[in-house]
Amino acid sequence: MKSKNSLSNSNYKYSELDKTIRLNKFLSNAGICSRREADEFIKMGLVQINGKIIMEMGYQVKSNDEVKYDGSRVQQSPPAYLLLNKPKGFVATSQGGKINKSVQDLIRSGVKTKVPPIGDMGRPMTGLLLFTNDESLRKKLNNSNSIPMIYQVLLDQNVTKEMMNKLKEGQIIFEKMQKVNAISHIQGKSKKEVGVEVHSVSPAIMLKLFASVGAKVIQMDRVVYGGLNKKDLPRGNWRKLSAKEIGFMKMFS
Which pTM was predicted? Predict the structure, then answer.
């Protein structure tokens, strides 16, 4: 792994006298490995401090040192896992930069450090959005093809059976075959509104999928993400994931 992303770290306890902590304990506290495994990784030259490979077993890490394991920075912020029911008008992006009405504005009151969203979501889109600074989980979820998602989508026209069949058969989007697992009209709603079941299909790709069959998305709401839903989570509100939910999300591959 040569990623330059950060690896989460929590539970640091530096010495009160010299503000240091043994390197193997530092890595163990970060959740990367056990102390015994850390010693092996250090011997293998997988750990850098301030740009220098460290192979000394008893090396003491200072609180302001930059530690990298296998090319990824180990940060001192504890891991955070948040679920937001995103309202319309806010934007989630991985591109960075200053953005008006960023989803970060909605969670800032409850987290001291920046916790980025997983995936992008434009201003018109609403629904479930997951945030974490756990880079291992971020990488896993971003690369997964198995996360079940359900969207409720309102189109500019009636959705015909022919359109549904084309979406289930699949369409080439960004040079990759994309398709829906299931699609149907929503009981009690107009023929312009459908429920769509997919696996690991982003809102941006959903827009392209419907455009490929000649329909324009007016509204789109993600109501299920993995095993997470919007129960007891009003629009614009967020909550922390439970330990059980975090464990479940880590099972996706």
Answer: 0.74
